[in-house]
Amino acid sequence: MPGYLDNYGAGEEQRNRIVSRIGIAVVSLSIVGALGWYLFENHHQESVVKSFLTTLRSGDLQSAYRIWGCTPQKPCSSYNFTKFSGDWGPAGASKPEDTPDLAVLALTDSQSCNNGVLLTVDVNKNRTEKLWVDKNGDGISFAPYPICPHKSPWSIMIHRTVGRLRQPLLR
Q1: Is 2 contained in some domain?
Q2: pLDDT score recorded for residue 92
């Protein structure tokens, strides 16, 4: 005759195994989700700058000026088309070392910063530009500062370590 407590705790091992597997799955999905969000957080602003660089490579400065956020009919007050073509055109640069090199022209870094995204573009082997794309609009401008202000040491560390995973996505 079986005793009253003979089967006590018989299903406990299976329940513990199920609970631990669910816990591991939740933690794994959280890590993968957070990493995916971090890698693709600035995807839209990066694609705006990529299309700007592609247009520059094709030599269509008028379209690149429109992507910048200005049009010939309504030019940017502080950055007219003449100045734009001097900075980004093949023969318009005042100094030959400032001329964009189509083989080097590429987006190299992206960092979310307050209400915009700070993007680093290699223009040629001697010139690197920091560009700013506002998160509320798609207009491009030169960055108001070289690095994001008011960043915590943790976010700087994450950008310098995990941010390296984003670099192949930028090319």
Answers
A1: no
A2: 54
Burial of 155 (0-12, 13-18, 19+ CB in 10 A): middle
Q: Are 119 and 132 in contact (CB under 8 A)?
A: yes
Query: What is the pTM assigned to this prediction?
Result: 0.80
Which pLDDT score, from 0 to 100, does residue 1 have?
61
> With the C-alpha atoms ordered 46, 52, 55, 57, is the resulting torsion angle positive or negative?
negative
- Least-confidence region, from 2-16, 29-43, 85-99: 85-99
Q: What's the number of domains the chain is made of?
A: 2
61-68 helix and 81-88 helix, angle to the nearest 10 degrees:
110
In a domain, 159, yes or no: yes
Question: Under DSSP, is residue 51 helix (H, G, I), strand (E, B) or coil?
Answer: helix
Clarify whether residues 69 and 122 are in a common domain: yes
100 within 8 A of 56, measured Cβ to Cβ:
yes
Other CB atoms within 10 Å distance of the CB of residue 68: 22
User: Alpha carbon 150 to chain centroid distance?
Assistant: 18
